[in-house]
Amino acid sequence: MIIPFTKMNGAGNDFVVIDARTLPLRLKSEQVRKLADRTNPLTHGCDQLIVIEHDPNEEQRADAFMRIYNADGSEVDACGNATRCVGWLIMEEKNKGNATIRTNADILHTEVNLWGAALPGWKEASGLITANMGTPRTQWQDIPLSHPVDTLHIPLEIEGLRDPVCVSMGNPHVVFFTADMEQLNRIEKIGAALQRHPLFPKGVNVSIACVRGSPTLGAIDMRVWERGVGLTASCGTAGCAVKVAAVKRELLVPDKFHTITLHNPPAQQTLMVRWDKNGHVHLHGPVVLEFENELEL
Questions:
Q1: For 177-189, how does the pLDDT look when each residue is reduced to its tens digit (9 = 90+)?
Q2: Rounded distance, CA 48 to CA 71, Å?
Q3: Residue 220, SS3?
Q4: Which residue in 154, 153, 132 sits closest to 284, CA to CA?
Q5: From the CA atom positions of the chain, what is the Rg in Å?
Q6: CA 71 to chain centre
Q7: Can you tell me the distance from the alpha carbon of 86 to that of 171, in angstroms, rounded to the nearest whole number?
Q8: What is the pTM of this model?
Q9: Under DSSP, is residue 86 helix (H, G, I), strand (E, B) or coil?
Q10: What residues are labeled active site?
Q11: Which domains does the chain have, with CATH numbers?
């Protein structure tokens, strides 16, 4: 079976995208792992593999359904940068300025937007896309956690970091805040240690964040470890979770776009996130179409 694919990235977070709307496709975990492998000569690997399908919901049909696989072959429910990438593809296809993408978590809305277009490094983007990632969940059972705890003050301490915040953006996140930028470099050690901690029955994405400046004009520096992937150049839902956690801790104000700089290799990446008055989190940043090719399954 010969299948076309598109290689894309959203702020460095890269994806192999397969359109299965005309040719239904279900991938096995082993196939996903091979396609996501960084030594794969056709795809050059990816953080997540994305399959675009027709939305099966007939009552409230979105423009497309997005199935998300992590590099380890596991299927997950949310990915912010992939939502922006697939939104861009659908908008280009339909020649319109907005699109709706259904995931296992929710229906998400994307649009072409020029917020923050002057930020460094964004001029090379194929498009600047905003995704409305919906409302965050902060109740312990919604993240989910294995037992009731205060999600604003999680009783965890590791490598000198303590008192994190838990947020679900359709997938689980734990966020440690620090005033010391050097602490960001602990992400590999604590991410690997915590992603399968007993407190997180479905695993967890781990972020370390440093908020600079005032609550109104501040910015965030962060690093993230994604469950099922490891270090990625950026993670959209992690950026959203960190913004929500920072607002909850009164480090930033809501309803304003704040710049989030991700320091994961190979280069710094920038996203912008706003949590609006209606409780919806908006993720904004660049989308890049890298290349198109075909693969054989």
A1: 999 999 999 999 9
A2: 5
A3: strand
A4: 132
A5: 18
A6: 14
A7: 18
A8: 0.94
A9: helix
A10: 79, 235
A11: 2-134+287-296 (3.10.310.10), 140-279 (3.10.310.10)
